[in-house]
Structure formats: C-alpha cells, structure tokens
C-alpha cells in the first residue's frame, strides 16, 4: 500500500508540474510571426510567470542550453507540490502503522482470554492452544484493509466458531478522519471510534440447544441507534436495572430471561468494562428486518461490541468481559428453557411477525392481480372497439352475463 500511495503522490506532483510548465513556457514562447530581429539581449523582462521565475525574457531563457535552463529555473512551486505529496504519503504510512500497532496490541492483550476458551485461535489450523503461544501476535490477525482486521477462533463446547473484526479510525487518511469528526460534531452524531465486533455462533445454532430469545445489554449513548438498526432488538422491552451501571440498559423479551442470564460473573464484568462496552446481544432473530416469510429464519448468535481499550485497566476489564460473554452462552445452553407461559409469549411474538409478513405478501399479490385484471379489461375493451356494431353488442351481452354469474356465486358463498 505504501508503494502505491507513493506512486500516486509522485504522479500528482508530475501532473501539477507539467501543467505549470506548460502554462508558463507555451504561453510565453515566441511565435514564428514575432519579429525577433528587434529583440535585444538587454531587453527588459516582461512581467510574466516565466520572467519572474528566471529573471530573463522567454527569448533569453530558450537561448540557453538545456542544463542551464534547468539550473536557472526557479523550482520553488514544484518543491511545494513535492512537499505536500511527501507529507501526504508520510501521514498515510504513519496512520496505517499506528492502526496496525493498536490492533496488534489489542489482540495481544486479549490473546490469553481467547486461548483459554478455544482450541484454535487464528486462521492457521496447525497452531492450537495446547502449545505455548510462540507464534507472533500479528499472525492471529488478518489485515483486510487500511482500517480493518479480522480474527477467528474455534474448538469450544457450545460454540462452533467465533469471528471478530477490528475497525480502526481512518488514520491513514487524515482528510477523511477530520471530515468524520466534523460531521459528527455538526450533526450531533456519534464520533468515530476504534471498535471491535465479535460474533459467536452457538453449536447447532439452528436447532434447539436452548430456547430462542432476545436479550441485550446496551450502552445508553447508542441505545436509540442500535434499537432502530436491529430488528430483533426492536421487539424487546427496554428498562434500567439496579444491578447494571447507570450507563447501561437492558433490552429483553421477558423478565425471566434477564434474571436467568444476569449471572454474578456477567454483572461484575459489565461494571468493570462499562467504559468500553457498546452492546452485548444474545438473539435468535435476524438483525435486518425480514421482507418475506422465507427470510424469517431463527438462527442463534451472540454479539459483543466494544471500544479499543486505552489503558491496562481497560484491557484487563475487556478480557474479563470477553470471558463472561462466552460463558453466558454456556448459561443459556444450561438454563434457557423457559416456563410454558414465557415460551407461549415468545412464540406469539414470532407468529405475529410472520403473520404480518404473510399479510404484506398477500396484499402485494392482490395488488398485482388487480393491476393484471385492469390491464386485461383495458385490452379487451380495445379489442371490442375494433369489432362491428353487431359483434360489439354480442360481446357486451356476454360480458354482462359473466358479471351476473360472478355476483350470484359471490352471494351464494356469503349465504
């Protein structure tokens, strides 16, 4: 990426220099029609960019040998362009290195927690957690962009796999980062952050390892956005809880679900990591609102979104929260088997959502049929208008008879 950025910068400098040189040299080059016989070596330089940058007229400048012209020309503008390009490339490389260092340091701080939970951490199947952590920490991460890094873990009871994504600030592009902060300030939105998002897939996520439900602990600063953007959380009830920090709220479908998952380990971890926690979600419903019944497929998953820790204390709290997050899935498998009344309530919510989707599909189908009937009727009228008067009379009589039969059959069905 560094070499490509350098090439882009040099290309920009070359283009700008060529444009400047073309404007100055070509605009003031003597034409063939000009009377050069009257030109004098002592002629006063005319006021042009070329004369100002060389202290000589165009005729005098072009009379010099090539290297003399290069030596006497004032390259200050080109130096400015080159300085801007070098600064841009330096900031780009420095920002990318900064992001890489922060992502690597975060992975290093959480590696022990991940290795204690999974048999394999990283994309290399030959590296397992039964062996000492001799592999460089950077090997556990895969860079997929200037601001994006991913990691992976598998081999654990009750969890089939874990995917993580680290999204950094746009430090490689200072202009973009300044724009993002300015946009957040002007429109009162969330400022950009260094974030880590983790998705854990329970074993047999599409089967009955535990009863389906939706539960979340969310930072109040992003509560509204998360609720608006997540279909599953829009079906929950939001409430404060005395066991949670004041900066967090709980979203749950039932009080029994909340009390079952509020283990001492989870509550202690949330209190310790309240400065880094964005949200913790365990759900069996899709994040995106389904548009058709076929998209309404319950699939169990657990999500954790956290900010990059800024201190050793926050790193330790993050590791504690990560362990509690994974262990909560074990709690769900062991205890998330609800009383009949709670199960009926959850099932009624899901059935009601499916009925809404079916109604929307039926309405769309009826609307399409109505449009098709109107189109067929219009085409039929156009066809009748081309017939003779006798044929039109017969066709209209046949249409009236068909309409009467339809009305009679409708009345019989009502009776």
Automatic annotation (TrEMBL):
- List the subcellular locations: Membrane
Q: Which organism is it from?
A: Lipomyces tetrasporus
The secretion signal range is: 1-21
Any idea what this protein is called? DUF1682-domain-containing protein
Q: Which InterPro entries match?
A: CCDC47 (IPR012879)
What is the membrane topology here? Single-pass membrane protein
Q: Where is this region: Disordered?
A: 365-415
Gene Ontology cellular-component annotations: endoplasmic reticulum; membrane
Q: Which UniProt keywords apply?
A: Membrane, Signal, Transmembrane, Transmembrane helix
Its chief place of residence is membrane
A molecular function annotated in GO for this UniProt entry is: calcium ion binding
Q: Basic and acidic residues compositional bias: what residue ranges?
A: 365-381, 388-406
